[in-house]
């Protein structure tokens, strides 16, 4: 079952009180692995290489890579337990020889061998799925009905697909009885189509029936039963019922480990899926612990040069980012990228997606030019090989780079292009389009096109409510973003109930300490700050700081950002003695996390200079302002709003110092 991803405005903390739009916590799905049945063809190729002669009639030149593959093939044909080790060696040689085609062939063999199931499980399935004598025609008719149902869904006829699947189920029940394997499969397929058609309750009912029948026919820990249980997890997660989804995902993992062991690819897949869900609900420590222990399993199962190991490293990098260690995360992305480049064609979607994620991290590190170049390279390759989804992901990520750099005029057409691409790829009614509209509305908001942003956010929120209801993270995110627009418009009476409802719903759905809950709490504090209700804002900021320190750690970027906003509140209150040590703390943390030249670090530096100015330390303030201004020019360009902010602040200092000529020169440039 393919669930739609929710993409929402990225969180950012402005120099003043830019509202916090929501993180995209939903990560990409597992890489699709194709071409598993290369093996017979490879045997023919190897046979031709080793049994033929060259054009001059001489014996063929020995090729270490082909020789190693041949040894592995022969070992596999003899069911030698060491066949996988032979393929490991062949892949390593192919990587060293820079021959990704042969490396991919060896890796596919490793995948196939590792995915094998114990004989008892296969025998059990063969027994319960056997077609009774004389029923072959009925089985063929049942299969044809299922194929027709899938074809109708592919054409967008959801209602017709569900009806056809229902007929297939009735056919199975009538021909084979209510307790036959075809009924188990029919209920499962019906549930998938019902879910895709938006009939959530009906899909859940069909899945529960399929699950109960699978347990009766095959046992609770048979792979086919566990696949249905995993589908139930998909449904619960898609509906935003996270506690039950977590319980289900844990049961799937435990079932696979019992059935086939902890190092089997299915167990590793189940673990990765559970990790992603933990991350989606804001839990980092548990998935980080599992991933730390799982590296040895991945390397033992797939070897050191397999795309599945690269996929694991990419997820570990994403989790490490959540822990706030950007440098370690980038190193992990680099490891994954090296594997993908060595064993896959350049345009392989999984490799492109990993590079997009790495570019996202580089963007977060403030290296906008580097992120832009990396994404433009991905876009060029994705267009060349017609990799539609990586292309859309890269365009969306590039738009975010432009947003962060304040180049909204470049971000808008990119997001519009993504919207058009998704419409062609997924259809006009697909939920992903709502996520992209949410991003486009965010660009409108930052451009000051508030009426357009309000209209688009409102329509997006209505769309989400119809699909997933009000108390789903996607709806909560857009509710939050619409509240920010109302705040920007000065419509505080409209903004407060939305922001408060978003906070309360997020508390209920995700918990007090979830990053999204803390973001909505921060935005509610910002609203009170905008209204001048500083006494209401301060305890909310302190609550966010305490919760973030507990759940994320004091050195996490988000925890530091909440401290920054409290410091800025004190700056507005002219409580400079309270603001100064907080800005010093933020400056130290962001310097450690991002480096001296990052946009956020420079915000803290400039704010500290403003406080020093107000406290009368004018010479120190001048040094800090000059440092912030020069670095901002280098990093962001002469026309960026942050550069203009530093010019105005330094100009104001020069006025107070009586340096009127210097002040006039700066303030004129800042106009």
- Strand-residue proportion: under 5%
What is the C-alpha radius of gyration, as a whole number of Å? 29 Å
- Judged by helices, strands and strand pairing, the structural class is mainly alpha
Unreliable residue stretches = 1-58
Q: So how many helices?
A: 31
- Let me know the average pLDDT: 87
Shape: globular
| Counted beta strands | 0
Distance between the termini: 55 Å
Helix content bin = over 70%
Sheet having the most strands? none
Give short descriptive properties of this protein:
671 residues, 76% helix, disordered N terminus, mainly alpha
Q: How would you portray this structure in words?
A:
It is a single chain. The protein has helices at 39-51, 64-77, 83-96, 100-114, 119-128, 136-154, 158-176, 181-196, 200-217, 223-238, 242-260, 265-280, 285-302, 307-322, 326-343, 349-364, 368-385, 388-404, 408-426, 431-446, 450-468, 473-488, 492-510, 515-530, 534-551, 557-572, 576-594, 599-614, 618-636, 641-656, 660-669. The two termini are 55 Å apart. Residues 1-58 have low confidence and may be disordered. The protein has 31 helices and no strands. The protein is mainly alpha-helical and 671 residues long.
Task: Write a brief structural summary.
76% of the residues lie in helices and 0% in strands. By secondary structure, it is an all-alpha fold.
């Amino acid at each position: 079952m393919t669930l739609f991803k929710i993409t929402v405005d990225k969180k950012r903390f402005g120099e003043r009180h830019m509202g916090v739009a929501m993180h995209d916590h939903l990560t990409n799905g597992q890489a699709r692995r194709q071409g598993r049945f290369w093996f017979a063809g490879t045997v023919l190729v190897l046979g031709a290489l080793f049994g033929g002669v060259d054009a001059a009639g001489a014996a063929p030149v020995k090729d270490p890579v082909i020789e190693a593959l041949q040894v592995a093939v022969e070992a596999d044909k003899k069911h030698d337990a060491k066949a996988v080790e032979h393929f490991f060696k062949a892949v390593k040689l192919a990587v060293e020889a820079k021959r990704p085609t042969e490396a991919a062939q060896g890796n596919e063999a490793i995948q196939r061998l590792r995915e094998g199931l114990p004989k008892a499980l296969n025998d059990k399935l063969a027994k319960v799925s056997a077609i009774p004598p004389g029923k072959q025609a009925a089985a063929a008719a049942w299969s044809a009905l299922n194929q027709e149902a899938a074809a109708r869904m592919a054409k967008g006829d959801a209602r017709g697909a569900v009806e056809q699947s229902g007929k297939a189920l009735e056919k199975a029940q009538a021909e084979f009885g209510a307790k036959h394997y075809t009924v188990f499969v029919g209920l499962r397929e019906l549930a998938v189509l019902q879910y895709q058609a938006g009939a959530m309750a009906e899909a859940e009912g069909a899945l529960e029936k399929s699950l109960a029948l699978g347990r009766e026919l095959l046992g609770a820990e048979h792979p086919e039963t566990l696949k249905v249980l995993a589908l139930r997890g998909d449904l619960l997660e898609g509906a935003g019922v996270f506690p039950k989804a977590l319980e289900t995902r844990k049961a799937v993992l435990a079932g696979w480990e019992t059935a086939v062991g902890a190092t089997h690819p299915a167990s590793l897949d189940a673990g990765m899926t559970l990790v992603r869900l933990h991350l989606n609900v804001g839990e980092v420590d548990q998935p980080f612990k599992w991933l730390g222990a799982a590296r040895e399993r991945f390397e033992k199962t797939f070897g050191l040069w397999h795309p599945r190991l690269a996929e694991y490293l990419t997820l570990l990098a994403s989790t490490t980012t959540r822990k706030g260690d950007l440098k370690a995360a980038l190193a992990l992305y680099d490891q994954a990228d090296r594997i993908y480049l060595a064993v896959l064609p350049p345009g392989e979607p999984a490799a492109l997606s990993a590079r997009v994620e790495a570019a996202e991290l580089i963007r977060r590190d403030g290296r906008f030019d580097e992120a832009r170049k990396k994404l433009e390279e991905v876009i060029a390759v994705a267009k060349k090989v017609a990799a539609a989804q990586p292309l859309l992901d890269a365009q969306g990520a590039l738009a975010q780079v432009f947003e962060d750099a304040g180049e909204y005029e470049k971000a808008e057409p990119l997001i519009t292009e993504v919207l058009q691409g998704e419409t062609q790829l997924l259809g006009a009614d697909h939920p992903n389009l709502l996520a992209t509209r949410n991003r486009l509305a965010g660009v409108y908001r930052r451009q000051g096109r508030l009426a357009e942003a309000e209209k688009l956010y409102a329509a997006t929120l209505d769309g989400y409510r119809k699909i997933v209801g009000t108390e789903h993270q996607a709806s909560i995110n857009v509710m939050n973003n619409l509240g920010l627009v109302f705040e920007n418009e000065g419509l505080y009476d409209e903004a407060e109930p939305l922001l408060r409802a978003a906070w309360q719903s997020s508390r209920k759905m995700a918990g007090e300490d979830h990053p999204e809950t803390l973001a909505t709490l921060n935005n509610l504090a910002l609203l009170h700050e905008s209204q001048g209700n500083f006494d209401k804002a301060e305890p909310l900021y302190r609550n966010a700081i305490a919760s973030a320190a507990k759940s994320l750690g004091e050195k996490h970027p988000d925890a530091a950002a909440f401290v920054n906003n409290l410091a800025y509140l004190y700056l507005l209150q002219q409580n400079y003695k309270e603001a100064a040590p907080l800005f010093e703390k933020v400056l130290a943390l962001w310097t450690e996390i991002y480096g001296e030249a990052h946009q956020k670090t420079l915000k803290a530096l400039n704010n500290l200079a403003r406080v020093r100015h107000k406290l009368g330390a004018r010479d120190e303030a001048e040094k800090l302002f000059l440092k912030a201004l020069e670095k901002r020019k280098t990093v962001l360009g002469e026309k960026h709003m942050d550069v203009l902010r530093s010019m105005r602040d330094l100009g104001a200092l020069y006025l107070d110092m009586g340096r009127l000529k210097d002040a006039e020169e700066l303030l004129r440039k800042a106009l």
